[in-house]
Specification:
444 residues, alpha/beta, Rossmann fold, 2 domains, seven-stranded parallel beta sheet, six-stranded parallel beta sheet, 34% helix
């Protein structure tokens, strides 16, 4: 089947060609006709299978008829990165049209967003918090919304956004077409779907397994050797586009600095970075300025970079769902990719869970020239001090010098304070604040 089968407006063909689309993916094959027919949608699909285009294309087709000059589409997402991803896809697929799109999220100046809302863009891609601010300040008018998309709804639940989403829905007309996408459907999401959608058409394409285009490998290692193993692994891996995941933002920053010192072109992506820094990191990684990006799970969803060849889990994620989304950053659009995971003894339970989901044992790999027996120098016990067999009182008596007549224990008096500050050899100055240390590598 080709995209001609959907009989989309001819003006969209330019964007389809520019995006390199030839044949629709399974999620596109099922979702596009259902959305064109006016059905509400509940969709799940493996990450990297073209879900964004599955709802953007039919929405653009419908926008080409009807009135212009006001907001007709609202797409709500949990993260800024996903909002930018959808916004970029919308502009690319709609290149042959005059349909306008804008993003709305925090961390950047609200002024350009307010101007876009005032000028009446047809599509708003928004994160809940900033959109609620604009609604409260009467800057966003959602009375004409015809199409509502709730993307990564389960992720919004995890981030505590569901109350905000419900508040936003109070400002959207009830007579609309709604599409809800989620990786998992806990009771809260099922409840939201029941409240929000009317007789939805369900598209379930088995998100329970990772994408089949990714090859998996586990690298057992002691915790204190993980950084050294990562360095050894990168030396024998094509490092044109490698995404490394850590569990914490501090570890991501520290690991990026260590990789920089080893000569890699590296950037980092985590919640401590400003929005401008995040966009700069993403764009630089996407266009080859950086070989390696070290990120927290902020990059596990909504990051669509087709060239990522390897995903390396420096830390095992907390859930199987997080693992699926992380490794879904490679092997996208039917390309092949590799997922390497450094595992310690503490990760055994999660490994068993993943193997159960995937229905197979994951291969364990060791590097031939790597020293897995190296000691953890930070925890090497120090030698016990020498203890004399002479009783302590006798040792003190022998070491105490004879006192001259009339001396009253001057040896126990406190040394006089120096007029020039603390005693020599002690440093009482302020340390550099932690945020100022280790920052120069990123700005070189």
């Amino acid at each position: 089947m080709s995209f001609d089968h959907f009989k989309l407006d001819a003006r969209l063909q330019e964007g389809i060609n520019a995006a390199g689309f030839i044949n629709p993916t399974p999620i596109q094959t099922e979702a596009i006709p259902a959305i064109l027919a006016g059905h509400d949608i509940i969709g799940t699909a493996q990450t990297g299978t073209g879900k964004t285009a599955a709802f953007v294309l039919p929405i653009l087709h419908k926008l080409l008829t009807g009135q212009h000059g006001h907001t007709r589409v609202l797409i709500i997402t949990p993260t800024r990165e996903l909002a930018e991803q959808i916004h970029t896809m919308t502009r690319e697929l709609g290149a042959g049209t005059k349909i306008r799109s804008a993003t709305v999220y925090g961390g950047v100046s609200p002024a350009p967003q307010i101007e876009a809302l005032r000028n009446g863009v047809e599509i708003i891609v928004a994160c809940p918090g900033r959109l609620l601010d604009h609604i409260s300040n009467h800057k966003a008018n959602l009375r004409h919304v015809e199409f509502l998309v709730l993307d990564e709804a389960d992720r919004m639940l995890d981030m505590g956004f569901l109350p905000d989403v419900r508040r936003i829905l109070e400002h959207v007309p009830g007579n609309r077409q709604t599409m809800l996408f989620a990786a998992t459907f806990p009771p809260e999401i099922e409840g939201l779907a029941a409240e929000t959608l009317r007789n939805p058409h369900r598209i379930m394409l088995g998100l329970s397994r990772p994408v089949h285009t990714v090859t998996h490998a586990l690298y057992p290692v002691a915790h204190h050797l993980k950084t050294k193993l990562l360095m050894a692994l990168l030396k024998q891996t094509s490092t044109e586009s490698v995404l490394v995941f850590t569990r914490t933002k501090h570890r991501a920053e520290r690991l990026a600095e260590q990789l920089h010192r080893q000569g890699y072109k590296v950037t980092s992506l985590h919640s401590n970075r400003s929005q401008n820094q995040r966009l700069s990191a993403l764009n630089g990684f996407k266009h080859g300025k950086y070989q390696v990006m070290v990120a927290t799970d902020i990059a596990a969803r909504g990051l669509d970079i087709e060239s990522v060849s390897h995903v390396i889990n420096f830390d095992m994620p907390d859930t199987a769902d997080a693992y699926i989304h992380r490794i879904g950053r490679t092997g996208r659009a039917e390309r092949t990719g590799d997922a390497f995971t450094l595992v310690t003894k503490e990760d055994n339970a999660m490994v068993r869970t993943l193997e159960k989901i995937m229905g197979q044992s994951l291969p364990r790999v060791t590097l031939q020239d790597f020293d897995y027996s190296a000691a953890d120098l930070k925890h090497v016990p120090t030698a016990r001090p020498y203890r004399s067999s002479v009783p302590k009182q006798a040792r003190f008596a022998a070491a105490k010098p004879a006192q001259p007549a009339g001396h009253y224990g001057a040896s126990h008096s406190k040394p006089a304070k120096s007029a020039h500050g603390p005693p020599h050899g002690r440093h009482h100055g302020k340390r550099r604040p932690p945020e100022s240390r280790g920052q120069t590598w990123r700005n070189r």
